[in-house]
Structures are given as C-alpha cells and as structure tokens.
Amino acid sequence: MPDLESLYAQHAYGKLSKVRFSASQQTYDSRFTLFATGTWDEKEKNALTLWKSEETPISLRNLVPSYENKIIAKIAHKGDVRDMQFIGDNLLLTSSSKGCVHVFNCVKFERDETERETDFDIEMHVDHAYKMHPIITHYLHSFSENKSAAATGMAIKPFSTQDLEIASVGEDGKLVLFKVTDQNHRKIITAGSSGQLRLFDCRNPNKPCAKFYDPAHPRDALNCLKVNSSQVHQIVSGSSQGFVTIWDTRNLSKPEKQTHPHKNNVYELIFHPYRAGILLSCSEDGTIGIMDFNPHAENLRHHGTLRDSILIRKLGSGFNNLAINSIDYNPVARLLIGGSDSQNLLSKELE
Amino acid sequence: MSNPEFRIPSADFTFSTERDLSDVDELAFPQTTRFYGRDNGSFDSESYLTSSTGDAAVEQNGTIYNSRKVYLNPLYMHDGEINWSNTNKTLGAKFSPNSINGLVCYVFGKEPKEKGEEAEEILNQDQQVYTCPLSGTIDDRRSIKFKDEKVHSELSTFQDISAVWELCRIIYIPSTKQEYNQFGQLSLELRKWINLCFPLHRLAGAKTFLKGIDKNDGSELSDYIKLVLDILDSRPHVADLEYHEFNLRRHEWLSKISDLQTKIRGESFLEGRIYDILMILRGHTKTIIEKSSSWQEALGGLVYHGRPTCDAQELKNIMNVILKSIDTGSTPVDDALIEFIFRRVEKGIQHCERIDLWLSAHLSDILNKLDLVGRIHSQSSHQRQSNITTQPDVDIREHYLLSYAESMVFHTTLWQLGFKYFEQCELCGYSYMSQLVVRIPFEDEYKTNKLLSICKENGLTFQEKTISRIMGKKYWQNERYASAIVYFINAGDTASLEVIYRRFLDNYIDTGELTFLNTIESIQLDDDSPVSIKFLSRYRFFHALKQNGEIQRAGTILMELLRAQVAPISFWPVLLLNALPLLQGGKARKMIIFSTQDTLEILRNLQDVTSFVYQEEFSACIERLKKWHTVENGYPELDNNLTSLRLALLQNSADCYIENPSSPWMFE
C-alpha cells in the first residue's frame, strides 16, 4: 500500500487484544503516561501489563522516538482479556473470555531492596515500580450453571469513581448492568453479529426501544461501537466487512455517513477527543485508519486519499502483518497506541 | 589451539623453544579476527601474530565489529520458561531493504540475559535486537557459560543461521550499491564474513609483536623485521585503486616480498616464522592451508592473500584445493556452506533444514526470487532404483515454506502466522490451508472471527461454512437461538435451520407464546435469507401488528404467509385459526379484513387440511392447541371441524357481498 504511514513496533510479550490509556487527570507538564495492555490466545499465560510512556530527553530526539514505552507491572489474567477500561487513576476493569469482570488496583510502591519484583521473571528497572492487585471478580456471563460464556464488551459511564454504571455484554446474549442507581434514566446501545444496533432504555430492559441497521449491508456483522462523548447523539459502528458508519440517534432510518477504510473486520473505533470529525479505526487487515469526515482544504495536502469527501490516512508497520485488535489515543501525550496479534505494541505520535 | 591466557611480554624476552613452538605455530597465522582486520579493506598489520587477552584495546573500542544493532525498548527480559524460537525469532522474520544490497534478514531474536550479577553492562546488551550479520557481537558472549542449555543451543542455531545467510548474500545476491570496487568486493566481504561468523580468541597486534621482538641491535633479524613492517604498511588496498593500477601495484609489492624471502635463510626459529608470514602474504596456497585452523579461515586467507580480485564462481576451485587438505567436519552448517560455495543451491538448502526450518524456508524463498532455485525431482531412492519417474517435481521454495508454516500452525499462539506463510505458497498453500484451518481449536466468537477472516481472505468457502456450522451448533446446544440462526445462515445449513424453525413453530403450537419468535427480531434478514427464517420473521411481524390492533395489515401478512405455502402441514391449522381474531376484530370495527378471494382461499386451505389425507396431522395439532386455546383464555371453543372459523368466514363473505354486490358470491 503506497500511502501507508509507519508505526513504531515493539515486542509486547503476547498477542494483544486490548490497549487502554489510564484515565488519570493528566496535566500538560506531566512527563509520563500510563497505559495497560491485555493479551489473548496465550492459553494459561494471558496477562495484563502496565506500561509507562515517558518522554525521552530532548538531546536524544534525533535518534529515537520522542517517547519511550516501558513495562512497569504485570499480572496474570484468567482467560483472554476481552475488554478493558481504567476507572480514575488506579482502577483497571477487565472482562474476560471466562465470562468474568475483574477489577485490579494499580498502586505505586517504593521498591524495597530486599524485595525483588519477580512476577513473570520481570525485573523492573524504573524508579517507581507499580503493582497490580486483583480486588473484585464478578462472574457475569454463562450459558448454564456450569458453562461460562465469553464476555464480548464493556462500557462504563460516567468516567469517575463516583456513582459508576458498568454494562457488560457476553456471548450468552445478556447485557448485564451493575451499580445502576434508580434515578438514572440512561439509554444503552448495543451492536452485534446480526448487524443490528439496538437501543435500550434502562427502565424497560426487556425490549429495545429502537433498532436499526445499515440498509445497504443489512447482514454485515458489527464488531464495535462508540458514542461521541461531545455529541452524544452521534455514534459510530465498525463492521466485519470493513465499513465505518456514523449514525445520528435522532434519525435512525439511514446512516449519516459511511466510509470503507478497511478490507476486513474493524475491531475498534475512537473519536478524536479534540478534533471534531476525526475518527480512528483498527482492523484485521493490520492497519490503523484515520478518517477525517470534514476535511479542510489545508489537510488535503497531507497524506491520505479522499473518498466521498472523507479523507482517509492509513498507518501500518512492516513488522506487523496480523490484525490490530485495539487502539487508544491520549491527547495530552499525543500518543496513539495499538495492540496486535503479532505480539507487538504499535505506537505513533499523532496530533 | 592458542591459549587465551598466554601473554606477550612487553619487554625483551627469550623463549624456550620447546614450549613456544606449539604456541607460536598456532599464533602466527591467519586464524585471527584481527588478521583480517578492519572494514576499510586494508590488511590489518596491527593485528596478527600474537595472542593476548591483555592487549585488548582494539576489542574494547568496538570499532572492529560492524554489526547492526537495534535497541529494544523496553529491555528484553528473558523469561526462562519462554521458548525463544517460539516467542521471538519467528515473529520478526522479515525481509527488508538494507543500505548495502537491498536485502537483509531481520531475525528479531533477542539475546538472552545470562548474567544477572553484572546488571549494568548486561542491561545495555539486552536491549539489542540482532539483525544479520550479528555474530560479531554474539562472539563477545561465546565464552559465557549459559545457565540454560536451551538458550545456549538456540544462540548457536542463531549463529549458524547468520553464517549461512551472510555467505549466501555475499556470493549470490548482487550488490546494488557499490560499496567497494566490483573486482575486490568478494574478498573483502568474505573477510568480513569470516571475522563476524567464525572469530577466534583475541590476538595482539602484529606490529606490536614484531616491535616487541625487535632488539634494534642492527642484527640481520632486526633488519628483516623492519622490512616486514614496511611490507605490511605498503600493501596495496584493493578498495582504493583501479583494477589495472591495483594489479600493477600488487605485482610490485609481491616482488618486494620475494626479494626479502630470498634474503632470509630461515635458519633460526624466528626467521622461519617471518618466512612463513611472507609466504602467507604472497598467498602461498600450501602455507595458508597448513597454518589455518579451519577451512573457512583457509578460504578467507587464500582469497584475501592469493586471489583478491576473484569472483564468486572461482570460489569452488579454491574450495577444491582446501578440501584435499582440510577435513571440514560434518556439522550441518559446514555442509551447507560448502554446498553453497560449490553453487549447489538445492543441496545447501537441504542441509539448512537441519539447522533451522526458518533458514531453509527464507533462503529458498529469496533464492527463488533470484531464479537460483526452482524445482527438483522428488524421486525417492526406491524410485530411482526402479526407474519410476511418475512423481511430480517439487517446488523447493514452496516445500520449505510449507514445512515452516506447518511447524507453526498448531502452536497455540502462533497459528495465525502459519497461515500467513501458507498464503505465500501459490501452488499448495490453498490446499494446506483448507486442510488445516478446520483443525484449529476455537472456543469463542473472538477466535472464530479470526478463523473466519482467514477463510474469507483465501476463498475457503467450504471451511468458512464448516466453522460457522460448528459455532451454530454450539449456540444451539446452549439455547442461544438467535446466534445459532445467524451462524447457520452463514453456513447455508438449511437442515439445521429447518429443525430450529420446526421447534419454534412447535413451541407456539404447544404454548401459544411468542418468546421464541421474539428472538427472530434480533436477526437482520435480506432477500437471500432462507425461506424458513423469513417465514418466522413475517409470522412474528403478523403477531406484532395484531397486538397493535393493525388488523388490516395483519390480514395482508397472514394471506401472504398462507399463499407462500412454506409452513408445514402441522402448522396450517394454527395459521388458519389466526384468521379468526382478525375476522372478529373486523366485524367489531365494521371493517372488511379479507376479500372474497381471500376468504375463498382460506376456506379452500381449511378444506385441504381437514381432508382425509391430512386428518392425522390436523387432529394432532388441534389436540395440542386445545391445551391453551381455551375459552378461559379468551379463545372461542375449538372443535375438530373448526366450526367457529367456518362460520366467521361465511359471515365475512356475506359482508363482502353486502359491501360490494358486484363481488362474486362465494357459492357461485
């Protein structure tokens, strides 16, 4: 692909299914950013890894990327990591292929000389080491009493440790909500392999209050979904045929906009937190797509191809031929990270 | 062998002949990394002849090795339980353009961490990902005793891979960039290769040694030493000169050596050694072979000193001479290297298979792209004896790529890579993939999606359907009908869909509940969807309209369902009975729901199902309906003649006639 921009790849000790930046309140002068990666398909060796992305000294900038990602903690995870979210500074919530939701506490500790950290034979060569402790485990998804069902996704609202609402979906077809307070009249939207998007009102959970689909590709399975946090009526879905579709929940009869940045399954989507109209996607085809739905004339000079007035840039790495399963973007560190099946952590600085 | 502990005295010394004979004999000749010296192509007069671990200035400044290193970030932390070949080497196997000749192999193996105590120093090293050529740096660690035997053997495999890969690059892959003069390139690259891949112990500089033994006493020996030093300094450099100029200068230089040789009588031990040095510098075949400790060294020496302008084709002649005198050993790496020097590419690759499957696969791939390797006859010895030639030829590249891919495909984690390699095999890749993709275990949708993607990308339609069917069955067993139906639709498994369809209809006949049917709501259908599922969807829609009081539209849908003739006979009584509430509702609201034609059609169907032919199914269905279709539940009384329905239809027909007298009277 001639227009593929390069991503930096580094070994990540496992096939990554999820990558997530910490939700901590970061300031512009903070010199490092935390993020976590979770693995899948590693049999009994699946793990959660906590990383620190740190700015490199200015003197070295010509030689190496201007940031450095280091592992600072690692803990075993039962089953594949299917979804992952940070809550606040130090709580990490994961859902697993065993149908469980786990909460881990990530805490910093001053290293004691007598105590050598040897989890996974890893010695941490950083000033401040972290530890991850499992604190809560909920068994949420099962086909029957003895038969667990894999979790497939999770959502948290709001993004604070107060008054949390957590929704988890699984292969058992159940949407489990917990810690929802009565006065909330929130709506939940789901997407699935049937190709439908279904909107539920928490007050009437037995029946969706609306369902809609892409009439041009009615049976195209949907893999992922994201709500635009700055325009809550706007949602975007990614499909198994590589389509990215924007919807307006006020008009569900047809998609607002659609583009086809990938050849194959789209696994995750992100709205750029600051720049309206910019979406990031990752896919089975091993690339990350950056879509500008409202391209300005000056942007057209940059890399990318214009399709139906949507500017698409593609990122990839020569070290990665396999699927990119997850992406996340941190606007303060201006860092895009991706986790792939080639056991690589991919990263790039992005405005 | 030379003794690394042996130190050359810095002051004047004498030596006992008995002991030093053995040492110096070994030391004097080109078995040293230093002997082949530096990258600029000049003879390194500073560094041959003596052995010393003390004289390590050259070693420490690191300028000798030109290995390319990529710094790992974060540090590579070796986990004793992780198998290096599985976790690192294979994943990074890449071909990428490189600055020298357009090709390089990134093996992406990481050096293991073997010495925990020397933390700081080891850490720096452990950040490196080694690219080929890499042995120079690995050599620093050769003396390190590995705690882990497995790591040690992997490292040695890695060194072998590097040796073979580099030799093939030097002799087969044409250079696109002129790093050296074309005519001198082979000798310089070969020298580099030997230094990187087969280095020996540390040896002191030649000049240092010569100066050390020079007593400056005006003696004959002292004069000879000065002349040798002068010869070492005046060696013409192949890299700096034009071909003719170089030959001319080299001819003059060789004459200078000959002149000196005629003067040396070689009576004393030292004079004998100096004489030998001059023989080597002249490229004297016998001396170089005698003084070499391995065939590689002899090859390097003969090319560098004797034939500095030779090309790759001539190497086999030189090799033939060496093989007459030196036993090459029979390690896979020796065998492979010799075959490649003789340009017997296929045999070389066969030996590589014994080193590592990765090597044979990638080497055959790249040599195939250079048209150096094609197909071989795959005759077994038995076939040769019996002159059977029916076996088709084997494409070497595919054979080794397939072997490598096969070795990965059942790995619990790396199986996806195996398929990526199969995709590179045009002839047999498809059939391998089609056989193996259905044998990868999968438990949940996430992994299933990955497998289905592989099938889709490679046009494995049958396998895609098989996997979908297995997933459908799994969900069916777990009573997740919506997911099961989606997978069965994708699998085109109409038989299973039919069973689910019947089960849904049976459930309605037995309970009158729509719970099962509601699952159909979450399945998005299109024109190509199976008729049975479309029927369920429409039937559910009919009930939804009826519940919403939209009886006119419900009537239209019901007629559509009746006319489609899709429902099994056992379900017909239900469909017909569904007309009853619509007729009653229409009557109440003074609406005509069914036209005369519709009424006639319903009656005709009613007649059919109550006929003798379907008597049994009809009665059974009515019996099952009676469990819930009761007066207490608000339904009219059910009899075996469906009298209430017949009466309602008759009434409807009369209403139609009154409404529109021109319409045909039903008994006409």
TrEMBL record, chain A:
It is found in: Nucleus. InterPro entries: WD40/YVTN_repeat-like_dom_sf (IPR015943), WD40_repeat_dom_sf (IPR036322), WD40_rpt (IPR001680). Signal peptide: none annotated. Transmembrane segments: none annotated. Keywords: Nucleus, Repeat, WD repeat. It comes from the Eukaryota. Pfam families: WD40. GO terms for cellular component: nuclear pore outer ring. This is 20922_t:CDS:1. SUPFAM superfamilies: WD40 repeat-like.
Automatic annotation (TrEMBL), chain B:
Pfam families: Nucleopor_Nup85. It comes from the Eukaryota. Keywords: Membrane, mRNA transport, Nuclear pore complex, Nucleus, Protein transport, Translocation, Transport. GO terms for biological process: mRNA export from nucleus; positive regulation of DNA-templated transcription; protein import into nucleus. One of its GO terms (molecular function) is structural constituent of nuclear pore. It is found in: Nucleus, Nuclear pore complex. Component of the nuclear pore complex (NPC). Belongs to the nucleoporin Nup85 family. Functions as a component of the nuclear pore complex (NPC). This is Nuclear pore complex protein Nup85. It comes from Dentiscutata erythropus.
